[in-house]
Amino acid sequence: MLGRTYETQNCSAARALEIVGERWSLLIIRHALFRGITRFGDFQRSLGVARNILAARLERFVDEGLMERQPSSENSPYHDYVLTDMGRELQPVIVALTHWGDRWAAPGDPPVTFRHEHCGGEVHQQTVCRDCGQQVAIEAVEAQPTAQAMSLA
Asked: What SUPFAM superfamilies does its record include (predicted)?
């Protein structure tokens, strides 16, 4: 059984969970990505998360490089929490997790759809082979350890 941390796991998914695997983490990132929220109070009001939990998550995101804390404006005591490239790259994770939730956790009419702002088409995640460009079925995906992982074993 895994403990509260995953440092003994030689797995990038486990390492990612160290950063964004807590209950509120991806919801905070979702609100930053798709609602444009950057202010502490706006996150708190929209999510209903306790202030101490939100403060800890935002601080962790800044420490890990997912967000940057920036002054809201001159002479303002407030800060904005702005996603970095690292944080913005969680977008496909949130889209895929939402689609999974629509199908398996809350079937029925989805509460939100993701649309391409240019044409209005619905956005879907796919698993595509980097070499040949074909869409790959789940059954055809293998997890193979890299040479580095083999040397650590």
From this structure: Winged helix' DNA-binding domain
Number of domains in the chain: 2
Reported as a single tens digit per residue, the pLDDT across 101-126 is 999 998 888 999 999 999 999 998 89
**Domain co-membership, 8 together with 73:** yes
The tens digit of pLDDT for each residue in 34-44 reads: 999 999 999 99
Residue 62 and residue 135 in one domain: no
Query: What are all long-range contacts of 56-62, with beta carbons under 8 Å and residues at least 24 apart?
Result: 57/22, 57/24, 57/25, 57/28, 58/28, 60/19, 61/25, 61/28, 61/29, 61/87
Q: Do residues 79 and 95 share a domain?
A: no
